[in-house]
Predict the structure.
Amino acid sequence: MRMDRESPMFTAKCRTVREDAGFRLTFFCEVCGSGYVTPPLICGTPKEALRLGGQDARLHFNRCCGCRRWVCDEHFNENQMMCTDCMPRICARCGAPVPKGADLCTVCGAPQFEAEKDEER
Ligand SMILES: [Zn+2]
Ligand SMILES: [Zn+2]
Ligand SMILES: [Zn+2]
């Protein structure tokens, strides 16, 4: 089997719970420890559950290209492709911390993201 470099193995910390209907997995952000719970996974083995659950959960997690941990959207600096431990979201102009999803620095008002095409009004 060939390794796919574009999509690294999803190796976030996880907990498996067996339920009547199948398995339910909880994956944890390695910065804040908050969990993402998958829908019930109807399958026979924990290994299969991990594969199915991982496909779902990886949409909610991001891998830091610095420390290579899996972190939630909240703790991922998408501009740098790193977790907020490695690369805190800070304003490029004044250095103030910038909250997740903010377009403008709350201190100096500098735009925090590359302007997108649909921004012209
Ligand atoms: Zn987190
Ligand atoms: Zn990191
Ligand atoms: Zn600023």
